[in-house]
Amino acid sequence: MKQSIWKYFVSLLAALLLLPAPSWAQGYTQTRYPIVLVHGLFGFDNIGPLGYWHDIPSSLRNDGARVYLAQVSAANSTEVRGEQLLAQVKQILAASGAAKVNLIGHSHGGPTIRYVASVRPDLVASVTSVGGVNKGSKVADIMLGVAPDGTLSQAVLGSIATGLGQIISFLSGSPTLPQNAVNAAKSLSTAGSARFNAAHPQGVPATACGEGAYMVNGVRYFSWSGAQPYTNILDVLDPALALTSLAFAGAKNDGLVASCSTHLGQVIRDDYGMNHLDEVNQTIGLVNLFETNPVTLYRQHANRLKNLGL
Ligand code: CA
């Protein structure tokens, strides 16, 4: 009898040791290299970079990750933002003593981190684009007065412009469009993105909606995105995202970026039940209750990087 109980405990212990580390385990997010979070276009005033990643940095730090928040121009060209980020990455490496960083960028943060990995791959362990505008956004095209395909009526274009205006006004705390947003829109347009990709092609899929190279110049490339513009009735920005989603004329999108445009390197998933702001746990944690929490995705990804030795 005693022996069978002993056997039971030994086999239980063996089973526990064989299980993968649970998501609450200490060290679950403990990556080898520091994680640098890079905000998108809407890193404006009242939702500044500190609050931009609502609850995500603390959740990553709790289980071992070293997390840094980059602060680049809220609205500017990818190259200008990229140079600002490169300077900050060098500071982070000097301060932390690390040899490389894991870059995670949301929205315009996607191309921004790609710029750094393109010009200084030796400083970058991985690039992860979340809802990244890698092949441009039709919303940016419309903002610049370039209607996509001529298929959208004036009334629909008006609705999209209204939605975009509401999003920008809310996030900037300002009733007018910031002047430098035009520079950003040029980078985020379909044509501007194509120009950027020609100069910095690493990880960009060669096909319209496939995956890109997983590893280029020693840097691992990943991406994920949502594909549900309206997810939470309590979030004041969801109706605006429902309007901007009209720009995509039925193509899968998160309200501001088409799913296929977000693809970079290894596509983890491109159709989470999330809109563009849910992807960074906004507005203040109001996300889809019937989908994996976005904070969980960042934790899982940190664990993925850790298991790859990054
Ligand atoms: Ca939301």
Can you describe this structure?
The chain has 12 helices and 7 strands. It is of the alpha/beta class. The longest helix is centred in the N-terminal third of the chain and has 19 residues, at 78-96. It starts with a helix and ends with a helix. Strands 1, 2, 3, 4, 5, 6 and 7 form a 7-stranded mixed beta sheet that branches. It has helices at 2-18, 49-52, 56-61, 78-96, 109-119, 138-143, 154-172, 181-188, 190-199, 238-244, 259-262, 294-307; strands at residues 35-38, 67-69, 101-106, 124-130, 215-216, 219-226, 266-272. The mean pLDDT is 89. Helix 4 (78-96) packs across helix 5 (109-119) and helix 7 runs antiparallel to helix 10 (238-244). It has one domain: 3-Layer(aba) Sandwich (Rossmann fold), CATH 3.40.50. The structure holds calcium ion. The site of calcium ion has 10 residues, from loops. Calcium ion binds at residues 231-232, 235, 275, 277-278, 282-283, 286-287.
